[in-house]
Amino acid sequence: MDEETARALGIDTSVTHPARRYNYLLGGTDNFAADRESGDMILKVFPEARVSALENRAFLVRAVQYLAAEAGIDQFLDIGTGLPTADNTHEIAQRINPASRVVYVDNDPLIAHHAKALLTSTPEGRTHYLEADLRDPAGILEHPEVREVLDLGRPVGLVLLAVLHFIEGDAQATAIVRQLLDALPSGSHLVVTHVTLDASAPEVRAASDAMQASGKLDAWPRTREQFERFFDGLELVPPGIVLLSDWRPAPGVERPPTPAIGGYAAVGRKP
Predict the structure, then answer these.
(1) Domains within the chain, CATH numbers bracketed
(2) At what angle do helices 33-45 and 18-25 cross, to 10 degrees?
C-alpha cells in the first residue's frame, strides 16, 4: 500500500508505528518513510535490531508449535500482533490443530486493513482481528468479539511478542500482564519476548537513554530481572528465560552469536 492510499484510509503516515517499523526491520514493504527513518535510526545505535526481529519471528513459530502440539492449547489471544506476514499464529496453530481459534489485537489501522484479507482461517477454526490497545486489557477481555471467538473458561495461549517494551514503567507493564492472566484459567500459557540491553556496551546504553530523553525511541528495554516479573506465579517451560535464539532452537539451524541478539524470550504455564 502506498502512502497516498493509506492517507485516504485515514492512516497518519507521517508518524512512525511500531508494527510498521517492525515490518521494515523484517524486510517487508508495508511501511512508510517515517517508519523507515525511525528503523534506520535504531539500526545505527542497535545494529542487532534486524537480527533480533528475525529471531523474534522465528521464536513465535517454535513457541506456538509447542503450545499447539505439546501443551494442547487450541485458542490464542495474540496482542500486538503486527502486520500479517508468513507463519502467523493461526497458521502455525492450525497446521497442527485445524480447529484452533485465534484473536489478534493491535492498534494500527493498516493492520486492520491487511487482516481482513490475509488472516483467513481453516473451516474448522476461527480467526478474528480486533483493533484495540494493550493499555486497555479490560476492554480487550470484555469485548464481545473476543468472548464470541474464545472460551475464556478454557486454557488460552496469551501471546505478547515484542510489545511490552512499548509500555513505560515496570509497574504498568506488570499490571497489564497480571490483569490479562487473572482472567484466564489454569493451564493457560504466557508467551513473551522483550528488548534488553543486558549484553550491550555502555555506549549503546547511553545512546538508548539519550534517544528516549529526546523522544526518538519509543521502547523501554528491560533487564532479565525485570523480565522475570512478568512470569511471577507461573511455571516456566524449559529452558526458561533465555535469549530469543536459545528457546528450543530447531536442530541443525545455525544460530547468530549472542551479542547479535537483543531480546529475551520465555513461555510460562499458569498452574
Answers:
(1) 3-248+256-269 (3.40.50.150)
(2) 70
Residue 207 half-sphere exposure, CB side, CA atoms within 13 Å?
Answer: 13
Are 30 and 1 in contact by the 8 Å Cβ rule? The answer is yes
Q: What is the mean pLDDT of residues 235-256?
A: 90
Instruction: Name the β-bridge partners of 158.
Output: 77, 190
DSSP 3-state of 133 = coil
**If you ran DSSP here, which 8-state letter would residue 103 be given?**
E
CA distances from residue 63 to 149, 214, 237, 241, 266 in whole angstroms, order as listed: 21, 36, 10, 13, 9
Average pLDDT over residues 10-37: 85
Q: Is it the case that residue 270 has pLDDT exceeding 90?
A: yes
DSSP single-letter state for residue 77 = E
Rounded CA separation 13/71 (Å): 41
Q: Which of 176-180, 215-219, 235-239 has the lowest mean pLDDT?
A: 215-219
| pLDDT confidence bin for 175, thresholds 50/70/90 | very high
* Nearest by Cα to 267 from 238, 244, 233: 238
70's enclosing H/E stretch is none
Query: Which residue from 140, 246, 236 is spatially nearest to 191, judged by alpha carbons?
Result: 236
Q: Is the dihedral of CA 48, 49, 51, 55 positive or negative?
A: positive
| Residue owning grid cell 504455564 | 269
DSSP letter at 231?
G
Model pLDDT for residues 106-159, shown as the tens digit of each residue: 988 778 777 776 678 999 999 999 999 999 999 999 999 999 999 999 999 999
